[in-house]
Amino acid sequence: MTDQIQRPGPQAAVDTGGTFTDIGIRDSDGVLRVWKVPSTPSAPDEAVLKGLTEGLDRQNSSPAELSRLIHGTTVATNTVLTRTGARVGLLTNTGFRDILAIAHQARPSIYDGRATRTAPLIPDELIVEVDERMGPDGEIITELTEDAVRTVASQIRELKLDALVVSFLNAYVDTQHEDLAVRVLRDLDAAPLISAATDVTSEMREYDRTSTAAINSYVRPGVSAYMDRLVTGVKDLDVASPLWVMQSNGGLLDPDSASTHSARTVLSGLAGGVVGAANWAKSLNLKHVVSFDIGGTSTDIALIRDGQPDETMAGEIDSLPMRLPSVDVHTIGAGGGSIAWTDSGGSLRVGPHSAGADPGPISYGKGGVDLTVTDAHLVLGRLGSELLGGRFELDYAAAHKRMVEFGDKLGMSAEDCAEGIVKVITVTMARGIRAVSVERGVDVRACHLMAFGGAGPLHGADLSHELGMASAVIPPLPGIASAVGMLDAPVRRDYATPVRAEDADGLEGLKRDFEKMAEQARADAEVDGMEHHLFVDARYIGQSTELTIEWKKDWDEQRELFDSAHEERYGFRDPDAAMEIAVARLSAIAPQEDRPFASPGPASDHIEPDGHRDVYVDGEWVKTPIYDRSAFGAGTVIPGPAVINQFDTTTYVRPEQQCRCDDTGFLHLTEKEQK
């Protein structure tokens, strides 16, 4: 009897957005299918389970067949942004209760005397001090006693906290005092959840470390309750696969770890798109790619080099620092819902404020009164009157009427006004692209723009043309790219140890630190075969920030790697300055098995448009063919101008460009060859 090959079951990813929850399902042959359901902000798990069930039903699959289930959540993100988290207290050193309020030297707007910082998550009245002091080298200056902790326990209990953070100066060098305080306070039931800052991040910089721990405790009860409900719901559906949660670093975490280390999920949703863009860039052999994800309110931009997204060890949310590894995303207030307005001088401005999903753009017909970028695209003819395959209708008449009124104030026609709105938002977005390319030492003209999100393909053509980029690349399912990108994310855990190495002799200590982290990683491993990747944070002595680079066992090799990284990032190297290593890092990553892309099939000699529509381009109406993307095959080439429709987005091609479909279904927008 011939042995039959057992094909792996379908994989599913669910990404929760503000308006829709996106579901991406990939079968064993690489065929991707998508589904969208309205999000349920008060109970996000309801939309996740409903969308997953409906998406599988549409392709005649069952939850029991799933070989992988991944979720990108916005619970932690929204909790911080809306300030609806837990009542968190802080126990810190005597005299240092203002550590969160004072923060660091960076200012929101250095020349604006009215600018204020974002309020800390822990208010002053919930901060308690205790006599304790440890020096920068771990020497005990003031011993922390159990009696001192017991004395403050009753004060903490009276605050009726949901969670308590214990953060002492220099505890990253020696955690014994934080550990003692946590143990005693837990024994005395001072608060329901008590954690040491060093359990969240053990790196130096007291403000950043305390802020990270505060964020973790602030979102932890909500994330934990959400994970409990979701895990129960997934079990009730008889899902065969374990549930994995997307974390900010582009890797996956199990629900129990996400419940405890909740701050690691703060950038969960946007990381999925960056991971997807990185994998696609690698598959397409694109050296430099700018990941460009446009939603309704904001645009998330990231640089990808040789298939690897830039990472940062010092991210932030709502201006609050998080000392945790995350994809290095530059977010700007520009999206489909960005509102057009005039400033005090009468000039046209767009964003950063947004109409959001409710009421949304005027064309949504939900009571919106402010013109948005989406309304401008509709008036220009780039968008038709229907979205989502006819499930969502746009009100052209209402958008055009308001555009006429707005244009009259500026002395412009409705069409010129709409084109002006698009051009203004293009300049804003172009600045964001330069921030992750030119400002990091990369020539933007050598970059490819990976445009996705609901509105990304509408803007890709304009931006690649404006900046002279190599091309704009549109994935097969750009509207749910974050969900699709999660399908290829690896299981990952990160570890960090503060160190001090200023010469070759210090490398021996680093080897011991790496082995300790490796032992911990092996103990924590959720899956077999996790590979360990070693890095260090290095700097010239006297600098206040570091660069994270691969670890080299030879000091001279390490120094050359750092000098090269510094020159690429800042434009120079300093051969006279001494180098020091401040942090040792280990990333444990489970290799992800590649699944093939489904080919769109061979191209026909000629594809006919579904129809034509007048599109306003550079001051005049141009009769423009409208195509259905499902008709494109491998090798299909169409000249611009063109509009390409699909279920989850609309792609616009400028007159100077052409669009080519490759053998994996990606669209490549490039400038036409000059004759």
From TrEMBL:
Residues annotated as domain Acetophenone carboxylase-like C-terminal: 528-671
Domain (Hydantoinase/oxoprolinase N-terminal): residue spans on this chain: 13-186
InterPro entries: ACX-like_C, Hydant_A_N, Hydantoinase_A, Oxoprolinase-like
Domain Hydantoinase A/oxoprolinase: 209-494
Spans annotated as Disordered: 593-612
Annotated PANTHER family: 5-OXOPROLINASE RELATED, HYPOTHETICAL 5-OXOPROLINASE (EUROFUNG)-RELATED
Protein name (Swiss-Prot/TrEMBL): Hydantoinase/oxoprolinase family protein
Originating organism: Brevibacterium gallinarum
Taxonomic lineage: Bacteria, Bacillati, Actinomycetota, Actinomycetes, Micrococcales
